[in-house]
Amino acid sequence: MAKHDMPLLHPQDVPAALGLLSRLPVPVNGTLALERGAQSAWAWPLAGLVIAAIPSIAALALIWIGLPAPLAAVSFLTVQILITGALHEDGLADCADGFWGGYDRVRRLEIMKDSHIGAYGVIAIGLSLAARLLALTTVLTADLAGPYSTVIPLMAIGMISRLPMVILMHLLPNARGDGLAQSVGRPPISIVCIATALTLVLGFALLGMQLLPILIWTGAAMGLLALVAKRKIAGQTGDVLGASQQISEIIGLFVVASLLT
């Protein structure tokens, strides 16, 4: 099927997004998913919502039965990483190693493709886990002090943090001729607009005006990441997209934690 003959949206886009971004056993029409490619990127925020819902509910259940908030936070991160297969953490580590471990564009891309992790990657993952653990502990502790539900903001952050991947795929050229981002393709502006509108509507429904500071800080961070990626490797890769999710998730958790204290 030619790209221009495809419907703008397709029901199979949601399971395709879940199959791409997680290890959840969802039935995916592989042939259709391959044909649609980046056309299904509008559903990535929805996939993030589902992915975040599972560890959010698990963490809240542990809080309700009396588990301390720090242990519930560790459980949240563990479940989430098991669901995603550490896909985004791997991207963050590869970006850290490549961006600051290589002396030119070609060498940086080589390092990012290498399956071995370096010192910069270890530090990046360690900081990401520590930052999220501290913020999650604050959010889960706040839930003990009142009726504020942790499930809703954590699900919203999971959704919002997948939107920058769609936007960066459209704005930045692919930096290499292979890899996951290259195989998916470049989402058209119509798909970016749908993903953005969906995230804004659902985000406002879940968070209200608390959505605004998350969007502002995330937008600023993604602008900076885009500039760095453009300068370091002249575009984006799947690793850059993974790093964007991690950074956006950390920002979202920090904003929610600050609003609860």
TrEMBL record:
Needed cofactors: Mg(2+)
Pfam families associated with the record: CobS
Membrane topology classification: Multi-pass membrane protein
Role, per record: Joins adenosylcobinamide-GDP and alpha-ribazole to generate adenosylcobalamin (Ado-cobalamin). Also synthesizes adenosylcobalamin 5'-phosphate from adenosylcobinamide-GDP and alpha-ribazole 5'-phosphate.
Keyword Nuclease attributed: no
Major subcellular site: membrane
GO cellular component, one term: plasma membrane
GO biological process: cobalamin biosynthetic process
E.C. numbers: 2.7.8.26
GO molecular function, one term: adenosylcobinamide-GDP ribazoletransferase activity
Name of protein: Adenosylcobinamide-GDP ribazoletransferase
Transmembrane portions of the chain: 42-67, 117-140, 152-172, 184-205, 211-229
